[in-house]
User: Fold this.
Amino acid sequence: MALSGVENLARMPELKKKLLWTFLLLAVYRLGIHVPVPGVDTASLSEFFASVENTLFGMLDMFSGGGLRTLSIFALGIMPYISASIIMQLLQVVSPDLKRIAKEEGAAGRKKITQWTRYATVLITVVQGFGIAVGLESMTSPTGAPIVLSAGWGFRLITILTLTAGTVFIMWIGEQITAKGIGNGISLIIFAGIVAGLPGAIMNSFSLIGAGELSVFVGLLILAFMAAVLVFIVFMERGQRRIPIHYAKRQMGRKMFGGQTTHLPLRINTAGVIPPIFASSLLMFPATIGSFAQGSEILQQITALFSPNSLLYNVLFVALIIFFCFFYTAIIFDPKDIAENLKNAGGFIPGIRPGGKTREYIDRVLSRITLWGSFYIAAICVLPMLLIANLNVPFYFGGTSLLIVVGVAMDFMSQVESHMISRQYEGLMNRSKGKVRK
Assistant:
C-alpha cells in the first residue's frame, strides 16, 4: 500500500512539488526556532520556563514550538495572527459594515479582511514584543541570574523589531504553504511546533522503562490506550449530522433547474480547538500572575488552587469548555443565515416550513450535537491530568495539542488524497477523449 502510494506520488510531479515546498518551508520555520534574540541569557530563560511549565507561559511556549523558551526570533509563533483572526471574526458579529464586506463583497471583501488581519497581527506583535521585553528585564532564573544581559531601551527596541519581523515572516510562510503547498499553512506551523516535542517524550518514556520506574506491561497498556483515544478522536472529528435538503424544480427560460436532493452537514465539533484554548488561557492567568509575585503568600495559595492537578481547576476547565463551545459555535454558524439562503435558493428541509421554522429546527439540532461535542472536547482535555495522576504517565498526552495534531493531520491527508483522486480523474477523462477521437 505504501509502495503504491510512493509510485502514485512519482507519477504526479505537481503533488511532489507541493509536498517538497511544504516540507521546505516548515524546515525553514524549525530552523528559525533555534536563532535567539540578541541580549538574552538563553540558559537562564530555559531554567525559568522549566519552573513555570503549568502556567500561561507553558501553553504559549507549546504553540510557539519551543521558541519562547529560548526567546528565538519566532518566539511569538503564529499566535498573534490567530488572535487577530479571532478578533476580526468577533468584530464581524458586532459590526454590520464588516459583516456586509465579508458576505456581500465576495473575494474582494475577504481580501480586504485578510489585509486588515495582517495589520492587526503586526500591532499585536509590537504590543506583545514590548511587554515581553519589559517583563524579561525584571525576571531572574530560579538561581537568581538575570535573564536580560543589558536592560534598557536598546534591548526593548531590538526585541520588538526582531519578534515583529519573525512573526511577519512566519505569517508569510503560512500563506505560502496554503497557496503553493498542501494543507492550511497556519495550522501546519502549529502542528510542526507541537510534534517537535514528540521524540523527546518517547525517549523519556524509554528511559523510565529502562530505569525500572515504568513497567513494560504498563507501557504497552498506555500505548494501546493512546491508540484507542486517537481512533476515538478521528471518529468524533469526522462525526456529523446530515440534515436532508430538497430543492424544488424551477423553470428559467427553456431550462429546468433544481429538483435535487442534498444534505446540510452539521459537525459534532463545530467550534474546533478554540474552546479549550480560551478556557486554558483564562484559567492559567492566576498561575501566571503568581509566578511574578513569588513573595506573596495569598497569591501563592490562589496559584495552588488553580494548578492543573486541582479539582477546582478541572471542574472550571470543563465548565468553561462547554460554555465556549456554544459561544464560538454561535459566532461562526448562524442558523438564520442558513435558513434564509435555503429559502432564497428554493431549498427546504422535508417536513419543515422554510424561514423561521427552518431556523428553529437547525438551531435545535445544532444545540443538541454541540452539547455532545462539548462533552467530547472536555473529556479529551482533562485526559492528561487523569493519566498523570492515576497511571503516572511520564508525558502530556491529550488536551488541545492532541486535538490540533489529529485535526491537522486529517486535513493534510484528505487534501493529498483529493489531489490524487482529481489527478486520476483527469487522466481517465483524457484517455476517454483519446479513444473517442480514434
